[in-house]
Design goal:
Elements: E1 4-9, H1 19-33, E2 37-42, E3 55-57, H2 60-69, E4 72-76, H3 79-82, E5 93-96, H4 101-108, H5 114-134, E6 137-140, H6 143-155, H7 161-166, E7 174-176, E8 205-209, H8 219-230, E9 236-240, H9 254-265, E10 273-275, H10 285-289, E11 294-297, H11 303-306, H12 311-318, E12 323-326, H13 330-338, E13 341-344, H14 349-361, H15 365-377, H16 382-385, H17 387-394, H18 400-403, H19 411-427, H20 438-442
Parallel strand pairs: 1-2, 1-4, 2-3, 4-5, 5-6, 6-7, 8-9, 8-11, 9-10, 11-12, 12-13
Helix pairs in contact: 4-5, 8-14
């Protein structure tokens, strides 16, 4: 391919990484293997190394240099708003919008003052609108999420005659690239949980909460279910893999504190329920995953849930762990369709307890589901799910409406069209409630712009 690709993340790239940095890192690996010349940079911190491509912290001056070097720039999060000069029409931009941040902050900001919460929500929506308006290509995490984003694209007039005529499916503008898993199966070099964490023996049965504890999750119902189940199965343990986020800009959330308080209140802390206070190094997570017997993800019935794509579940697939998940998100239908575990209603501790017991303690059930998970996991490998990004970077192009201006109709054209509509109204029962003149006031001309 030999295209020069710059990947920019606003997340910390290091031994310990959260979802955005992991995704950027895996994109760099796949693109490099496909023949691209890749640079991976963080705008906050970078300390990781890779033989196939450089990884660096890039202050603004270096970011400008690398942007001028690149044939394609792939970015996430707030990057385009933090560095507005990247909107320059000479750059070919790929926006990775796998995370609907403007839905996420509705929960994340609940502990803020009303004024601050509204400001955060508005700012996040505008951050996404800026990149959607400018990007030449966009990636999201699922078909359901794509439907959601197409609505936002339509509202911002990215679905217009130019983009539609180039590709009626709009796949050339917005395609699906889920979070993925490594091609190679995980290996265990040491125990991460069993026989290592005080209070968890090698013979115990471990439920893994495979990531951070955020306000849009529901660990409290899980702890109540585990509390009840542990009375019948004293070998049961629940292990929270990460508490302190590796990005120092991400604060500990209120639900994390309440989770620990509930575990202590029920007498479970460090006997049945355990918390890893730090964050597991990315290359060592297999040692923890392979010590677990089941992966769990519980959340509320939220708008954020409906369009989320839980990255922790990908690790469960990679490690062939049976999954118990709350209903309502994309993975719930996947778990059902492929028989990867159990799906339970939100905030239903009894149903959750029953599902956990069924998978973990019914004879032969865990082994049967594990085989299903192993078979399905191969479809979610990074090299497979990132195929749309690889194809775009092999033949990068400006979006159709970024190659030429998309103009709103002239007044005389609107007058002629309005006269035709008036005639239609007189001959049918159909009514146009707003005059066509509103188009010139509300639709911004699209095309190359700074």
């Amino acid at each position: 391919m030999e295209r020069k690709v710059l990947i920019i993340t606003p997340d910390s790239i290091g031994v310990k990484m959260a979802g955005p940095a992991i995704r950027a890192f895996e994109m760099a690996k796949v693109l490099s293997a496909a023949g691209a010349v890749v640079r991976l940079v963080s705008t906050v911190h970078a300390e990781l190394e890779h033989d196939a491509f450089p990884i660096e912290f890039a202050p603004e001056a270096l970011l400008r240099e690398y942007s001028d070097w690149a044939d394609v720039i792939v970015f996430q999060g707030h990057v385009l708003s933090s560095f507005p000069w990247l909107r320059d029409p000479r750059y070919i931009l790929v926006a990775d919008i796998y995370d609907p941040m403007h839905l996420e902050v509705l929960e994340q900001g609940k502990d803020l003052t009303s004024e601050a919460r509204y400001a955060l929500s508005l700012q996040t929506a505008e951050v996404l609108n800026i990149q959607i308006e400018r990007a030449d290509f966009m990636l999201c995490a699922s078909e359901k999420q794509r439907d959601f984003w197409l609505g936002q694209l339509a509202g911002l007039y990215r679905i217009n005659p130019a983009t539609y005529d180039e590709d009626e499916s709009l796949r050339s503008l917005l395609d699906v690239a889920p979070f993925g898993i490594e091609d190679a199966a995980p290996t265990q070099t040491r125990h991460g949980i069993k026989g290592v964490v005080p209070g968890i023996s090698e013979s115990d049965t471990v439920i893994l909460w495979g990531g951070g504890i955020y306000n849009w999750f529901d660990p409290l119902t899980l702890i109540r279910a585990v509390h009840s189940l542990s009375k019948r199965h004293p070998d049961l343990r629940l292990f929270f893999l990460g508490v302190k986020h590796p990005n120092p800009n991400v604060p500990e959330m209120a639900v994390s504190l309440r989770t620990r308080e509930l575990a202590e209140e029920l007498g479970l802390l460090n006997s049945v329920v355990f918390f890893n206070e730090g964050w597991v190094p990315y290359e060592e997570r297999s040692n923890f995953l392979l010590d677990a017997d089941l992966g769990v993800s519980t959340h509320f019935d939220h708008l954020e849930t409906a369009f989320s794509f839980r990255t922790r579940i990908l690790d469960y697939l990679w490690a062939s762990l049976p999954i118990v998940s709350t209903d309502g998100d994309t993975f719930a239908s996947i778990v059902r369709q492929h028989d990867l575990g159990r799906v339970v209603p939100p905030e239903d501790a009894a149903a959750l307890e029953s599902a956990l017991e069924d998978v973990l303690y019914r004879e032969g059930e865990r082994e049967r589901i594990t085989a299903n998970v192993t078979n399905f996991a191969v479809t979610m490998r990074w090299t497979t799910v990132l195929a749309p990004l690889v194809a775009f970077c092999a033949a990068p192009r400006k979006a159709a409406d970024n190659r030429r201006p998309v103009m709103t109709p002239r007044n005389e054209e609107l007058d002629a069209l309005q006269r035709r509509v008036d005639g239609l109204e007189r001959s049918t029962s159909w009514k146009m409630t707003r005059p066509l003149r509103w188009l010139t006031a509300t639709v911004r001309p699209r095309g190359p712009r700074n």
